[in-house]
Design brief:
The chain has 358 residues and is mainly alpha-helical. The protein is built from 16 helices and no strands.
Length: 358
């Protein structure tokens, strides 16, 4: 696969235009499967290079056959839903049957002025939406992002995020329905025996929800949200090793440039959270493993691919991070050639040509 193929993807992320062709396709095989488990856990991860296989963008998405022949008029339907607390889930399902797509859109659009979002806090409405989602076989990408966006917003607005809050269970139930295909794939990582820690169904749900929750065509916001979720698991002493992170990235991304940019530029992960005086060591460790995983993936690519991505990375560093080394997670100039031979070679080559990679 020639350099020009990958150049299209680099141009996409420079202009942030919405091009759906010519993007990088991430295909990992992980480390040598012939090694025994103990050696695999101790060996430096070496993902294989992209193969450039042109499988369809997000191949598991297919359009949902929502009835969009009639546009829901919020002047009559949404106010009814706003006052539907006393209606049963079955009554609400009957009310919005055939209009689920439009109702979700109305809820998303109103998120900016919170006109109708309270509808998404009514238990019977949430139950009805989950019931309706459970009857749909496959979802298009827009619906997945819209629903995850609503669920994430609903969870964030809950002061009580414990299992004692019934709304939390309803939100999680909707997230399970809308992300069920990807959740199954993420849980499948447990069968590979890469870690003593098992990805729980709830963790898989949060992983998928955060990945597909932002309306960001460059995917960078989704990368940052995913990494933040992965790091937050350290609060429960759940830290995934480098290989598991690579497996997760493999399943959830089919382009590499945003994964590099979104990971390396996200330094907020090192800032204390609400009620914290300092960042827990476990979260710092988790964030460092994310960097290792992404750099290992990058190092496994061909030299032209690495170079194109690093040029984009360098441009964004000076344009969006003011050339401040404190605004990135790690310096690529200090990488060990033994651990990252291809990446180190490209960094040195670019620096010799006047492109000083941070």
């Amino acid at each position: 696969m020639g350099t020009d193929y990958w150049k299209q993807d680099v141009d996409h992320f420079r202009s942030e235009s919405d091009q759906d062709t010519g993007r990088e396709r991430i295909i990992f095989n992980g480390i040598d499967s012939s090694l025994d488990r103990e050696n695999r856990l101790n060996q430096k991860v070496r993902p294989v290079p992209f193969q450039g296989i042109n499988f369809p963008e997000r191949e598991f998405y297919e359009k949902v056959s929502f009835d969009q022949s009639e546009t829901v008029n919020p002047n009559w339907l949404m106010p009814i839903l706003m006052n539907s607390a006393n209606k049963s889930p079955q009554e609400i399902e009957t009310l919005i049957d055939g209009h689920l797509y439009n109702v979700i859109n109305n809820l998303v659009i109103s998120c900016t002025d919170v006109d109708y979002f309270p509808v998404f806090k009514i238990p019977s409405v949430l139950i009805a939406i989950r019931m309706m989602l459970s009857k749909i076989n496959e979802f298009d990408s827009e619906t997945i992002i819209n629903v995850n966006h609503l669920v994430r917003k609903g969870i964030i607005e809950q002061e009580d995020k414990s299992d004692n809050n019934p709304l939390m269970d309803l939100y999680r139930g909707i997230a399970v329905e809308i992300n069920r295909d990807k959740i199954k794939q993420v849980l499948g990582i447990n069968m590979r025996g890469h870690s003593q820690y098992e990805i729980t169904p709830r963790a898989a749900m949060y992983i998928c929800m955060s990945r597909y929750s932002a309306f960001d065509r460059s995917y960078i916001t989704n990368v940052m949200r995913l990494n933040s979720t992965l790091a937050s698991f350290s609060n429960s002493n759940l830290i995934f090793n480098e290989q598991i992170l690579i497996d997760i990235y493999e399943i959830l991304f089919d382009v590499l440039t945003p994964l590099v940019l979104g990971t390396m530029f996200d330094t907020d992960i090192y800032k204390p959270g609400v009620g914290e005086d300092e960042v827990p060591e476990a979260r710092i460790e988790s964030a460092s493993l994310q960097v290792n995983a992404v750099l290992s993936i990058l190092d496994a690519q061909t030299i032209p691919v690495i170079e194109n991505i690093l040029v984009t990375y360098n441009d964004r560093f000076y344009a969006q991070r003011a050339g401040d080394i404190n605004n990135i997670r790690a310096s690529m100039r200090s990488l060990s050639p033994a651990d990252y031979p291809n990446l180190s070679k490209v960094v040195d080559s670019l620096c010799q040509r006047g492109c000083f990679i941070p």
